[in-house]
Prior knowledge:
Chain A is mainly α.
Amino acid sequence: MLNLSKSEKYVILFLSISALLGMGIIRIRNYASNRDFKISQIDLSDNKDTLGESDEKININTGSLEELCKLPKIGPKLAQRIIEHRNQYGPYRRIEDIRNVKGIGEVKYNTIEKLISVE
Amino acid sequence: MKSPLAGIAVLFCCGILMGKYISIPFFYIWFFLFFLVLIAIFFRDKRLILDLSILTIAFLLGFASWQNFTHKNTRHIKHLIRKSPIYCTLTGELRSDPVIKKYDKLQRTSFIINVKSIKRRGDFFKTEGFVYVILTDKKPINVEYGDILNLKGILSVPPESTNPGGFNLKEHLFKSDIYGVLKVKGNLGIERTGIVRQSYFIRAIYRLRHRLSELIEINLKGDYASILKAMLLGERQDIPSYLNDLFIRTGTIHILAISGLHVGIFAFLVFVFLKTARIPRLTRYILTAVILVCYAILTGLKPPIMRATIMSLAILFALVLRRAPNTYNLLGLAALIILFVNPCQLFEAGFQLSFIAVISTVYISEKIFSMLKISYKENASHIFNKFFKILIVSFSAWIGTSPFLVYYFNIFSFVTAFANLLVIPLLGVIVASGITFVILSIINLKLGFIFSQVTYIMLILLKLIVEFFERLPFSYIYLKTPSVIGIIGYYVVLLIVLNYKRLNLRVAQAIVVMLVALNIFVYKTLIFDRADKLKITFLDVGDGDSIFIQFPGGSNMLVDAGCGGVSDVGRFTIVPFLLHNGITSLNYVLLTHPHDDHIGGLKGITEYIKIRNILDNGFEEETPVFREYRRISREKGIKTISLYRGFRIDVNKDLGVYILNPPTLDSINKVYSNINDTSIVLKLLYKDFSLLLCADIEDEAMRDLIRYRNFLEADVIKVPHHGNRSSFAWSQFLKEVAPKFAIVSKAGFEDDITESNNVINEMRLMGIKVYTTGITGAITIAADGKSYLIKKILDRLDKYEFL
């Protein structure tokens, strides 16, 4: 119907194939970009130099104001009160004793429990 | 020339285009024009010289009309408006039909005023020009066309689009010759002092329109009333966005905007009515013309309506003179009149679509008919033949308008030709029956109600048809916004193929041209649209977060989804941004914590974009926003993973994302008391580039994070909690991160921020460059692992920053 000559047929065939090929590559590329990532769990604290000194527990009997402030949920005011408490009543004998400080309740204690020590 | 006006209109358009990009002193143009007119008069007998000089005159007039439009005298309000808003009182005439939009508690009334004077801090200036007024109040405010008003409010330059692909109000209003926006709150800021005397005629027409709109609402319900209001009265503000999408996706959106079809049907009805009423011929024509003009005013004089009305009037005129009108001439005449009034309409979507639709239905179908050797006027007795012809016309409109539809809506529809085949005849029935029932309702409500049922059924049918076509598999696809060169290329190829006989091409050569174009398109996409860089876009979503990350290799992640609610950021900012970039699926959506300014937009996104995975912070609590979020992820069957400290997402071998916060799953009950502190904090590491996204963390989380100091260091930080001062630990935290650049996701103007925000000032003092999305608009960082560059959408002066 179209009366194509031989060379015309080749040209058209070639162009069609190259276009299809290109589209195929785009399709594959899009498909590849849609795969899910690998989500794994690593222990951030395994990495020695990433953790620094925070591995050590903070001694509530010797800890300075600054050190105590590093504890979660403990601000400068509360840290000051922890220091005042030990100056007034002597050193803490057990870590539970810190609950006697005004402002440290159940929730705060549970948070810092594993991060503090008395010796 | 067969259609001289068309040629003149085309050159006029070229003149406008040139005027937009080149500036020549008016005097030279005027001089040259004068000279050309003289030549034309002298050589009026020499065809060629006369034609050429007339065309050049048209070109120069286009050029001059653009300059005339944009150049304003010193009194114009354009020179009085600054970017930072000012409080002032404007006096002016109301010059449009106020549009009322209802929200939960508030009513938003918007209209245009022609400003006469401005008062500010005791200073009084006479001025001129148009201002767009937005009035918000609890009760509706009664203002009408032609009122003289005193308005107290905040005047500013209209907002530009601050996100790629976003709506640009400044440009939109500029096209209507409007340079300012005045925001008025409550009815205390508005005072009516009089009425412009000449406005009674138009006031009456607008009152009629409100009455008709009420009548439609009485007789029809919900969606159907809003569709009919759009079709008959041009009121599109009540159409819900899902319905709008439905029509866009099937390529039938044109039936919701009054255009040639509607005006044509209306004109035909009026004409037939007058003929049956046995009104004498000339009176009949004049009456029809008058009614058409009234209808055009009633429906708001938008460019498609103007085009259709001018063409109809010209046809009527031709009929009076008993001459056959030439379509291209009519089109040229309409274009010339519209553009002479406002040359900016050339860049308006409505204008372009309206003209391209007519041109393609006429021109392309004519060419296809001649190609298939079917005579257009040949009386096809065979029903199949007739159907085939209509299909070709519909198909022509489709291939002619598609590039524009892709450009404006990012949608390419495959079903357009077929959907229109059913929808357009239905449109005729709906418009005809709608007009009948509305007019009968004016006479008698009950009678109107009976007739309205026909319209009602037809509207149901219309919605069903459109829904059917939308649901077909592969009915539409989303495409990236094409470049202007791409669009021009498309039309050039189309013209070559349609005119292959005239160009003495063989069929094979025409096919080759098409295939070459296809190859160029495919390989251009293959080579240039490859994602080989890490691209991070901090979208401007006001006081909220939304960060889009395009990973090298093509996968992507959206961190947070901005606010929901009335100004749904998901639907109106994030979705247009994604579609503009050709992104239709998100590999991951990471929701740092379930506050509305971070997950509110999710719902809007899921309606358009396929989300494959959701990552969240494992928060479990019964709050409305959270419940909504869970419902969406369940309904759509999206896989959800909860992340906490220690998770690593491996994007590829060079790029990893580390989760630093929250410390444990369910940390709201175990560790922190504040939801903000449980936000996911993530560190992205790509070769030499690192980024820390801090979401909304506050004091406690920052204290905790300081312990992981070697993970904190980053080149760029997204400042926690929109730069709000909330933490003692912030200074220390910042020292550990030691960023070079800081990005704050926050609304507000430069002055407010530098005056009041300590966090930002502190960082600036430390020598960190701080960018705020509210000031610079969306911020994009492109990193190839060695270097990176930061691009801000609004900072035209220093657009790129090489590092």
